[in-house]
TrEMBL record:
<dbReference type="InterPro" id="IPR001173">
    <property type="entry name" value="Glyco_trans_2-like"/>
</dbReference>
<comment type="similarity">
    <text>Belongs to the glycosyltransferase 2 family.</text>
</comment>
<keyword id="KW-0328">Glycosyltransferase</keyword>
<keyword id="KW-0808">Transferase</keyword>
<feature type="domain" description="Glycosyltransferase 2-like">
    <location>
        <begin position="8"/>
        <end position="83"/>
    </location>
</feature>
<dbReference type="Pfam" id="PF00535">
    <property type="entry name" value="Glycos_transf_2"/>
</dbReference>
<protein>
    <recommendedName>
        <fullName>Glycosyltransferase 2-like domain-containing protein</fullName>
    </recommendedName>
</protein>
<dbReference type="GO" id="GO:0016757">
    <property type="term" value="F:glycosyltransferase activity"/>
</dbReference>
<dbReference type="InterPro" id="IPR029044">
    <property type="entry name" value="Nucleotide-diphossugar_trans"/>
</dbReference>
Length: 280
């Protein structure tokens, strides 16, 4: 039987986990297992999760003493999910942030075309913020050299980062990338937005878990790199619908610390993406 297992990370925002659980409970995936990996939250948030375990019989929580990072945290949940009795070769793992709301027909949407699940390791769903902003397809082909140059400047100094953010807010109507405007076009894409992925049995034929090159940020690129190493790309499926609060966890991180995480991840990214090479 085809089934799904949800795997989320939680970091000092257990109220969002509760909202996600209620969303699942109201959908056609209401009986499917949910694994939440807590990445070293404060005691008050951990206690909220313990109460949720009492309320939701399908919930398992893994309590980490420290923050492992995003993909490393998900990997702990993925390992647990693959050891559940309900896990089968046709199981799809829905992995990502905990600040998500799922469509009432979510499971039906996933299994509407099982040939795609057999063919692609990772499916990217239609992710829309509560204000209607589309977040997929995140990157259809590649990022322009101009934008890559701006990324470099952004990561040279925290002051420059703030200036670029303010400028982007003022000019977003004509400087935003246009990839997300193709939100209704089903297609192969270079990168899917990192808030949620569907990992199929094909993924686990090729890999043991998500790449952990960075603690936080640039996960989309490193997952794309992992897929390309085996000749695959993300597949964007607009009929699988998710709503996203956005930045529920990263919004709790102080601005400068978040920029430092991004700077470190960008440095790792630049080892592989050489913008000024002939191949780019």
């Amino acid at each position: 039987m085809s089934n799904i297992i949800f795997v989320f990370t939680n970091f000092n925002n257990s109220d969002f986990t509760e909202k996600a659980l209620k969303s699942i409970q109201s959908s056609d995936a209401c009986d499917e297992p949910v694994i939440v990996v807590d990445n070293g939250s404060k005691e008050i948030e951990v206690n909220k999760l313990k109460e949720l375990e009492k309320q939701f019989s399908n919930l398992t929580v893994i309590y980490n003493r420290e923050n492992l990072g995003y993909f490393a945290g998900l990997n702990a949940g993925i390992k647990e999910a693959r050891e559940l009795p309900s896990y089968t070769p046709k199981t799809v793992l829905v992995v990502g942030n905990n600040d998500l709301l799922f469509d009432k027909a979510f499971k039906q949407q996933i299994f509407a075309d099982e040939t795609l699940l057999e063919r692609y390791p990772v499916i990217s769903p239609n992710i829309r913020m509560l204000d209607g902003t589309q977040q997929n397809p995140h990157v259809i082909e590649k990022i322009s050299k101009v934008r890559e140059f701006i990324y470099d400047i952004y990561h040279t100094h925290y002051l420059f980062a703030g200036m670029i953010v303010k400028l982007a807010q003022l000019t977003h109507s004509f400087t935003d990338r246009k990839d997300e405007e193709q939100f209704d076009v089903e297609q192969e894409i270079y990168q899917g937005y990192g808030a949620c992925y569907l990992l199929t049995a094909k993924y686990f034929e090729l890999f043991d878990g998500l790449p952990t090159d960075t603690f936080l940020m640039y996960e989309e690129f490193f997952l794309a790199k992992q897929l390309r190493s085996k000749g695959f790309q993300f597949y964007y499926r607009p009929t699988i619908k998710i709503q996203h609060y956005c930045h529920a966890s990263t919004g709790l991180i102080p601005g400068k610390l978040k920029w430092q995480y991004s700077k470190k991840a960008h440095k790792e990214y630049r080892k592989y993406v050489k913008v000024w090479s002939k191949e780019y």
